[in-house]
Amino acid sequence: MSASSDHSPGRAPHCPGGGLTRRDFLRGLAATSSVLVAGSAQAFSPVRPEPARPVPRAMTSLGLCRRYDYVEVRRTLGRMLDELGDVRRLVRRKHVTIKVNLVNTSAEDVAGVPLWLTVTVHPVVARALGSLLVDFGAREVVFCDQLPFRTPDPEAFAGYGFKLDEFRAVMNGRVRFENTRNRGRHSSYAWVKVPEGELATAWEVNRTYVDTDVLVSLAKLKSHVSGGVTGALKNLFGVPPSSLYGEDLKDEPDEDAIGYRGATMHSCVRPPLTSATSFTGRSVRGDHGYNVPRFIVDLATAFPIHLAVIDGISTIQSAEGWWNGAMVSVTRPGVLIAGRNPVCTDAVAAAVMGFQPDAPDRAWPFVNGTNHLALARRRGLGENRLDQLEIAGVGLEAARFEFQPTYRRAPG
Amino acid sequence: MPAALFTELSVWTAAGGGPARTGLFPRPVALKPKPARQLAARGAVQAATVFDPAGRAFVADMAGWVQAWENGEEPRWRRQLDGAMSATPAVDPGGGRLFLGTHMGSVYALTTGDGEVLWQQRLPAAGDPRILSDLLFEVGSRRVVLSSWGGRFHALDADSGRPVQEWEAGLTPAAGAVADSRGVLYCLRVVRGTGVVLVRRTSDGQEVELHRESEGPRGSGRIAVTAAPVLDEARGRAWFVANDGRTAALLLWSVGSARLAGRWPLPCGVQATPALAPDGAVWVADLAGNLHRFTAEAPQTQVRYNTGAEYLLAAPVCEAGGRCLVGDPLGRLHEVEPDGRGRVVFEATRAFQAALSFAPAGDLYLPGTDRRVYVFRNKA
User: Fold this and answer.
1) CB within 8 Å: A332 and B351
2) How distant is the Cα of B269 from the closest Cα of chain A, in angstroms?
3) Do A111 and B245 touch (CB under 8 A)?
4) Which residues of A touch B331 (CB under 8 A)?
5) Which residues of B touch A114 (CB under 8 A)?
6) A65 in a domain, yes or no?
7) How many angstroms away from the CA of B216 is the closest CA of chain A?
8) Closest CB to A329 among B43, B224, B288
């Protein structure tokens, strides 16, 4: 998967993190512990030095959009993608995979307000983006996320307002939905290595995330209790499948699993049931604020995002989901955010929310842990310092819309 | 209405007007269709504008700034506090003081004349100290009352900021307390395993649980208490909203007979404090974009106005002519007649999420998330 790779059914595209044979993979694990251990964050994590080479930077565009009106969203988003300069070239004749930010149920709401106005990407934004990418020449666009349903994929997506017929109608039929909670329609999983991975050395995932030329992260603009903010990077947390990483697994992988990854990737009280050990054991048991940001960066390293788009029209603040109960409240920033580098894009998104994207760890908005945007910069993934970022569209001042930050967890 | 009381009610010193948070302005208002002024804030404005008797307007914003304007025209002073503000401040109309609470858990007293800090008090909290509840200045006991996410209501001495009393505020409290003319407080809290509780509390700390509304199938952790009670002291009523995580009920407590006197189910939750109408009816803005009008005397009669927005976050207000005004998240201001006929009278570029308020002369102040407060002149 790279911008220049060719994709054809008989030939697997180049994997961004590097394809991985099982032998390579096991060899790479020799130096790592397979045991999850407890301990202080400081003991395991000396601050990485700044990368020797300049970190990548790319323009981020900001647009104002008050309502989920298809024409209005598409017009705004189209203008923003044009401002980024090379999106048409990026997707022309390419197979595009869009990891969309849905969540672990479609049967919930926030005080009666539907999920797509609060927690998940609104289908109108997804449809508008899909339509634009097809107009730009994309050969096929696959919307995917792991959804906790065993029903056929279109049915699983329908609960989030994603109606396949409506997408087909505006995308010349060049669209598919894939639920990546397990192996899905593929005969095997893909291993994707994490260069210099901190908590994970590789990911075993549904091949949808690998058999593609272009990966788009379509996220929701929200606060996040463990990550401070959630955007294009955090959206990748949905890539590891429930069948291998889910907390409803017993002692072996299960293609029917639909559980979340809380035990494996938040509290880290148990390892995933991947076909080989891939977690380094350098997580901190129970410390979500330590583990989640590092897994985010380990995912972003393995799955480079070519285009980040964030739905910030209507959302929630203080936390990320309905499961945070009364701590979240509905808010209406009326913004769309798009960029070619997910770290830059998320940093701009944090600034739109009124936060300092390079804030120190354990300071607002990253009050419960590590600033994953700064961590991503130190890993060489992209720039998060606001004065280094180029912003197009309406500009930061016009787009700024302060959020209530996530809440500080009580000690213990 | 006695002249003194009329004057007092005309000065909106707190969210909803005053300690009873009726949301009812005691004079007729006829708005000019275009804003006469736009007050520039430093951040999105999610708190209502409050006033002192001289007509000075105070705007607190999400960038942590508070600013004062003379008669909605000339900037008087501004000051940055230690955190963002979404709780509406409160004014001590006789003492020339402005009280504010921040998301960092600090309470401030500033002079209304020049914005000097008289005192600052940080509220104790094991976890998150943010203050989301609109502040209350209780004149009789000279206390400032508010809650924080530390889970406690706090009564601070208005002169020094010294804590005087504290009591249980329940889970993630965000609703302001209200007070009657004798200084008796009414507040709401969510208690795990119980649900929403309406509490009456006297200034000497005696507390009575007036009503418990069961928590519903989703449990108390999903219940937001953001809408304050509304006291209609003249009729001996307290209106309040009990959410259950998905739906809600509007409840009417009879102060005189000490019993629940009415209940109206709502199809979804409510975030905003209701507003009284001059005839005793109450307007409720819900999270489905509807504005409902209920009356105690005719419980079956219900007026509903659909704003066209998916939800409403801002509290409505009402004027003496009976018209209700509310801002919506699409950036529109609606004016709704008592019979439910309404229209959009103004449109801005971004959402309205904070309650409206009236200056003493009846000018309407509409706080916007576009970092502006729109001022509409009253031509009545």
Assistant:
1) yes
2) 5
3) yes
4) 66, 334
5) 310
6) yes
7) 12
8) B224
Q: Report pLDDT digits (tens) over A99-112.
A: 999 987 888 999 99
The span from the CA of A336 to the CA of A348, in Å, is 11
Residue A13 inside a domain? The answer is no
Shortest alpha-carbon distance between residue A110 and chain B (Å): 7
User: Residue B221 burial (CB < 10 Å; 0-12/13-18/19+)?
Assistant: middle
Average pLDDT (B126-154) is: 95
Instruction: Determine the distance in angstroms separating the CA of B257 from the nearest CA of chain A, rounded to an integer.
Output: 32
Q: Name the pLDDT band for B6 (thresholds 50, 70, 90).
A: very low
Alpha-carbon distances of B196 from B14, B44, B200, B220, rounded to whole Å: 24, 30, 13, 8
Prediction pTM value: 0.93
Q: Which residue matches tokens 């501004």? A: B78
Three-state SS annotation for B114-158: CCCEEEEEECCCCCCCCCCCCCEEECCCCEEEEECCCCEEEEEEC
* A17 part of a folded domain: no
How many domains are there within chain A? 1
Query: Binning pLDDT at 50, 70 and 90, where does residue A50 land?
Result: confident
In a domain, A259, yes or no: yes
Residue type, A87: V
Strands B152-157 and B163-168 come out as antiparallel
Greatest C-alpha distance within chain B? 52
Partner residues linked to B101 by β-bridges: B107
Q: Which of A62, A72, A113 would you mutate first to test chain B, the one with the most B CBs within 10 A?
A: A113
Is the ipTM higher than 0.90? The answer is yes
Structure tokens at A330: 């509905």
CB contact under 8 A, A404 and B126: no
Q: What is the pLDDT of residue A9?
A: 32
- Check CB contact of A69 with chain B, cutoff 8 Å: no
Domain limits at A204? 22-399
pLDDT digits (tens, 9 = 90+) for B59-77: 999 999 999 999 878 999 9
Output the six-digit token pair for B315: 């509290």
For A:312-331, CB contacts with B below 8 A are 314, 322, 325-327, 329-331
Pairing assessment for the beta strands A202-205 and B163-168 based on DSSP bridges = unpaired
Q: Are A318 and A45 in contact (CB under 8 A)?
A: no
A385 in Cβ contact with A358 (< 8 Å)? yes
For residue A354, the chain B residues in CB contact (below 8 A) are 43-44, 62-63, 84
Please name the residue of chain A whose CA is at the shortest distance from the CA of residue B351: A332
3-state secondary structure of B248: strand
Q: Is the pLDDT of residue B153 over 80?
A: yes
Q: Which residues of B touch A333 (CB under 8 A)?
A: 350-351, 369
Q: What is the pLDDT of residue B72?
A: 78
Confidence of residue A412 (pLDDT cuts 50, 70, 90): low
Q: Is the pLDDT of residue B335 over 80?
A: yes
DSSP B149-199: TTSEEEEEETTT--EEEEEE-BSS--PPPEE-TT--EEEEEEETTTEEEEE
Q: Where are the domains of chain B?
A: 3-376
Q: What is the pLDDT of residue B228?
A: 97
What is the number of other CB atoms lying within 10 angstroms of the CB of residue B343? 11
CATH number of B3-376: 2.130.10.10
Res. A388: pLDDT tops 90: yes
Q: Which of B359, B378, B323, B324 is nearest to B12 (CA)?
A: B359
Q: Write the residue in A326, A329, A400 that is nearest to B222 by C-beta.
A: A326
Q: Are strands A95-100 and A140-145 parallel, antiparallel or unpaired?
A: parallel
